[in-house]
Design a protein that fits this description.
The chain is of the alpha/beta class. The protein is about 40% helix and about 20% strand. The chain contains 5 helices and 5 strands, in the order βαβαβαβαβα. Helix 3 links the parallel strand 3 and strand 4.
């Protein structure tokens, strides 16, 4: 059983309300604390990056993309295990995400258990 480090949450960043809410419900059913944000900017402005044990983010979003968010977090020295989810995955984008430190890159629709396994693995890092 994965133990979340003291005060650490699973942060979800996705501009699609239904996807964000479904992910939040899924993570909560696994007994993990979660916070959800409609944009990368909202996540950065929240003060939560330092409390994030795992980040789940979409690649394509209005404003700052998931890859831009990853780059910004790296620049700010937040080494958050990140899981990218996307409906528009291609090998170039996948490789860019993994080179930036992503722990997983899932194509929508993905299996709920695969995501939960990735989250647990990220939290165990």
């Amino acid at each position: 059983m994965t133990a979340v480090k003291e005060g650490k949450v699973v942060a979800i960043v996705d501009d699609d309300d239904s996807v964000r809410e479904a992910l939040e419900a899924l993570i909560m059913t696994a007994g993990l604390p979660t916070l959800a944000f409609a944009s990368a900017e909202a996540f950065l402005d929240s003060g939560q990056p330092q409390n994030t044990g795992c980040l789940i983010t979409d690649i394509r979003m209005p404003g700052m993309s998931g890859l831009e968010l990853q780059s910004r977090l790296n620049e700010d020295h937040y080494k958050i295990p990140t899981i990218f989810i996307t409906a528009h995955g291609d090998e170039k984008v996948r490789m860019q995400a993994l080179r930036g430190g992503a722990v997983e890159f899932l194509i929508k629709p993905f299996d709920d258990e695969a995501l939960l396994d990735s989250v647990r693995s990220a939290l165990d890092r």
